[in-house]
Predict the structure.
Amino acid sequence: MKEELIEFELEKNVFYNPKMHFCRSISSLGVGTIEKELIIADGFSASGIRGLRYLKENDNVLKCIFIDCNENAIHYMKSNIKKNKLTKKSKVISGDFNRKIREFECDLIEIDPFGSPVPYLFDSIRSIIKKKKAFLSITATDTAVLCGPHSAACMKNYHSKSLNNEFTHESGIRILIKRVLETCLENNFGVSPMFSLSDQHYFKLFLELKKGDDYCLDSISKIGYTSFCTICGNRTYGKIMQNICECGNKMVYAGPIWTGELHNPDFISHMLLNNKNRDYFHKQKLDKILNIMKYEFDFPPYFYDLHQLSRFTKNSFIPKTEFAINKIIEAGYKAVKTHFLSSGIKTDAKIGAIKKILYP
Ligand SMILES: C[S@@+](CC[C@H](N)C(=O)[O-])C[C@H]1O[C@@H](n2cnc3c(N)ncnc32)[C@H](O)[C@@H]1O
Ligand SMILES: [Zn+2]
């Protein structure tokens, strides 16, 4: 099999999902954007494809520690490393991630398990406790818990209430960041997202961790709630949830969530440059999505879905996304596309203003 420059083999007991090719590419762009030489832990490495790609595609990766508890995976990973002539830069570790990660002190830890990353946060962060700065690259495939209607499951794993509405994917990824932050704070690290991606069935976070009270306090200041009115579509955010909407109805809420930025636009600009210089299979899709993410900056922690807006205004006309954005900008507000939904817009305009602009 082949993914980008890596040739590899596996058998059915060794996990490989071709649908995560894009996720591995965007993550590798992130790895190459870090202006520092890196020792990486590819926890949950399965065939080793992620770590192998990080090594092959990025000159700043000095070494990769591959960890997996599946003996078949270890066997194939070893031969895949050899096949790609990356033996000198690789170390293969067989065993449970939480036990093994503590034996290393990496600059970037890749957490790509089945389902939730939560059980692996504590040991990951303890392993880098002596560092001033490190990176976590996290995949979560339990989006049904983070976004679903069963808010008790979300409360149990993520200590937050989920909200199953039109911007559920944004609330979900913000709950995930807040949960990672909780474990970071306990260990005196603040977080700063380099990029946060919602795609298909998964969330991908690429976070910088920085140690010290100032970073922690700054991160704490970004924890809050979003409130939502199911009757008029109004949404608000703040340190506390809003109970009653301006229309008089009771609001529902998501949180606590991370209300800070989802991405670092400078970091994304560098990822875009890296993408131009690479010949990835998903080059165009990466360029498109990163160009949208770059401008998802300095907006409230939610978006508006134009389909739902027509429902709230009881109007069958659904404006095209670009048309709606231009109209809102013409009226003096900020507005951009969002990578969460093709019919979604991020804006600083409140719902009353948007209704007047799009449905005069
Ligand atoms: C989703 S797959 C990883 C996919 C891989 N990163 C890729 O990009 O193809 C999860 C892997 O984690 C391994 N795994 C599950 N629980 C583990 C644990 N507690 N410690 C180490 N490895 C574990 C499984 O054997 C499996 O290979
Ligand atoms: Zn309302």
Remarks:
- The first strand starts at residue 2 and ends at 3.
- The mean pLDDT is 97.
- The longest helix spans residues 168-186.
